[in-house]
Amino acid sequence: MDNIEKVLETMKDAGRPLKTGEICELCGLEKKDVDKAMKSLKTERRIISPKRCYWEPK
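Below the sequence we write its predicted C-alpha cells.
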C-alpha cells in the first residue's frame, strides 16, 4: 500500500475529521510523507476540509 492509500484509509477508519499531526500519529508516517500524500489527495478531490486544518475523505 502506498502512502496516499495509507493516509486515505487512516482518515476513513477514524470516522471524523483529522489534523495532519493526528494522521501522522495514526498511520505511522512522517509529516513530509503525509503532506505529500494529502497534496495529491486534494488535487484529486478525494479529501475535503470541513473546517480549517481538519481533513476527511470526500
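The two ends are 20 Å apart (CA to CA).
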